[in-house]
């Protein structure tokens, strides 16, 4: 969405207004932020609340494969898993989406056809983003043309760290335009931004530029989604909506592997952004192995027995 | 007898009117009262001001007013000022030797030793001003991502009942540690021997000690001490010069605003003091601040 | 707040703790009845259930306990420090082993959330014993002269807000320095102290070194006044602290007092706002605000008042009040009916004086003693709620325009225990921290405690420090050139 529509007015009018705005955002105290995230992590989610959380989490998974070795067969299997996560229990919700490289979008689209599961595609020279804008935009257009419902772009971290916020902004705006009707997730690669202040600035920058989702990371660097950086981004979407009326989604990606982790993230959502975000239209998990753990926990709740890896599918 | 001494004897000497030292000025007691001060053999020496409750109150106002500047001065600066007191005393040694000899019935030689010790005591405390914080403060290794530092700060306005017997060395030994750390003080001089204390005021006034940092009252110890012990704007009281009965009474009064109290104790003022009188009028402030978790979570600054 | 994501009850199991129907006084290593045969009941403030019946100490019991402590002092103080250290290490370890049991017990008897007893109280209790254990054989190096001596028998009176933690703060340094102890826990929270007596037994601590006397204020007064007590340590109200200071006047008793507070939490316009909101909440709602160092006065820069208040109110709406044993409970019960009525009357007075009262929608349980988290806005320094310690979950919000004004308002109190400063500007934090007349200043954080960190107040918040090297001083007679103390 063009910035002029926002209550924030013309903070993006020039490089200097944008810089002043971003640098004027409240600072983040790292210890306090992490302490809050850790404290919410001690919530004890049991029985009915756990059942609700597991189904919600499954429905929020962007089931992901982003490997050089991806093949049509691998992507088809992923699609089948997204549509029917647990063949032994058809009450299990589908995942939100499958997430693949642009060249696999068509295969994925076919695999999930008619299920309601979306196809998301990473684009813009994922994961490094080190390519000319024209290349990135072509990447996006390819994915959209192949039927992608959602585009997961990476920002230019180099430009961001060099202080060239306007370049990052313009690029997001351009990608948003190239995405057309597809929803745009903007990946910051928080591990490379390194400071919480930068993550807050990137969040606002992304939202100002029209992101539909802000996303932590590619899953390809050492530090990906953490409770603390996700909490910080949830605060950002909460505050952005309060100021502009525009709701933006959040997607932590990478490193979330267990049900326990996922439930902690849902507690963060519940107690920070609030229940309006407890929906896969507004919150996603970028994950692959998480799904099977959610399914095993779901089986445990249903049967009272602990499940095992042989009772969930490996796709 | 030399000719010079003879002529001095014949000359009618100029008496000194002893005055209080309050807020850097030398007022008489607002009550207009004085009392006779005699030497150890009962010979009249001078009339000293007999301070009233109102003098005590004025002294508290002066001490409070001076507290911000004095406690806010650098420790280095306070050290320089205390050293300056020693320098000034050195130059007026003879006067103090005479006053101490009279007051305490000491020989000239013994009185001189006492005055020397008192001067050296100022030097000792001058050196403490910028060291005590390092001795009693420091970083605390808390089990978490926090910088945590304890530092001593002056308690505030302190009332000191100066020792009754040791009219000068004892006096200096109870004033210097209090102001070295940035407190301001109201001293009640030895009741029987107030003259060295009142003369000290004159030295302090010319030693770069800001007005109000030290305020010296003479008179009936019990009369002056009672309102000061109860005064809500006094933070601490040193009962060195109180007898057992008075000390208890004052300690009870001091409880009304929880003054820090140093009880009377047997002290050999000739010995090098420890740090007890320095630390008795210090508060410990501990400040915490997050350090950041330095890499534990990747994005952790 | 109703949400699609309702947390199901997650109660901690009560079965880890076995509370006997009655307990005696712990004197000279034995549980014994009170001389006058009196007993009192201790109840769970969240349900009003009677937990146990406790022997109530009187003057004769105090005398008996002091005699036992005096007798034990001879051998205990003569033990090599390294041996005393090992007793304290044993105690620390046993506390760790039994920490879940003690956490549940504390929550039952005090009413505070299990989340706090489990994650704050008990870890700090064990850490405190560990810390002082290590000092016991290093006292020569603590800066109090060579060969500092213990004082003798310490009479210690502790409050109900952190029953076991306050016990640790008192007993650990006293034993490390070679003193023996008679401790009176508060009448509403005697149980963890009595369980601690059992821990002393398990640790093999010699008889009479620790004596526990549950009872009321009269027992505390008798202990403080007992002529054979050498050291008085008290944590509690300023009024009682003053009474103690009068009682010991003219005696040889060394005294330390940890009293009330009205902590200012100062939020500048450049603060890390989200963390400041957490710090404000933690500052006043931790332990239902029944904390002497609570940040009960919020001083917010006028330019961000509305924004901050919106955030704060939104955050308060997520606080979960209820069963203290539920692991998701943020706000537990008020400790006693008496305390609840004190809070209620001060809050009523705040309203009557024109301050604006606000609480989030919050259902209070029908049994037990409860008070909803409460904010007062439009408060000035003249309001009672800005001056008196409420000791409850009640925050008074005041504004300031400049740093000088913030400091002036923060210091405008008879108390001087704690303060908070929130700003991203280092020089401002240091300058303000420097000017605050408070014993603990938390900058960009609040309510943090550590055994190595000295804690205690300026002005009418008391004197002496607990914790750290400083905490040893209260229990030692320095071998000083200035002679006997």
Automatic annotation (TrEMBL), chain A:
Xref: Pfam families: DeoC
EC id: 4.1.2.4
Involved pathway(s): Carbohydrate degradation; 2-deoxy-D-ribose 1-phosphate degradation; D-glyceraldehyde 3-phosphate and acetaldehyde from 2-deoxy-alpha-D-ribose 1-phosphate: step 2/2
Transmembrane segments: none
NCBIfam families, A to Z: deoC
Kinase keyword on record: no
Name of this protein: Deoxyribose-phosphate aldolase
Keywords: Lyase, Schiff base
Gene3D superfamilies listed in its UniProt record: Aldolase class I
Biological process terms in GO annotation: carbohydrate catabolic process; deoxyribonucleotide catabolic process
GO MF terms, alphabetically ordered: deoxyribose-phosphate aldolase activity
Automatic annotation (TrEMBL), chain B:
Residue span, Aldehyde dehydrogenase domain: 30-262
Listed GO MF terms: oxidoreductase activity
InterPro entries xref list: Ald_DH/histidinol_DH, Ald_DH_N, Aldehyde_DH_dom
Keywords, in A-Z order: Oxidoreductase
Domain of life the protein comes from: Bacteria
Segments traversing the membrane: none
A Pfam family it matches: Aldedh
Coiled coil stretches, renumbered: none
This protein's name: Aldehyde dehydrogenase
TrEMBL record, chain C:
GO molecular function: oxidoreductase activity, acting on the aldehyde or oxo group of donors, NAD or NADP as acceptor
Bias (Basic and acidic residues): 462-472
Family label: Belongs to the aldehyde dehydrogenase family.
Protein name: Betaine-aldehyde dehydrogenase
Domain Aldehyde dehydrogenase, chain residue ranges per copy: 32-477
Entries under InterPro entries matching the protein: Ald_DH/histidinol_DH, Ald_DH_C, Ald_DH_CS_CYS, Ald_DH_N, Aldehyde_DH_dom
Chain residue ranges for the region called Disordered: 461-485
Keyword vocabulary terms for this entry: Oxidoreductase
Pfam families: Aldedh
Signal peptide interval: none
Native source species: Streptomyces populi
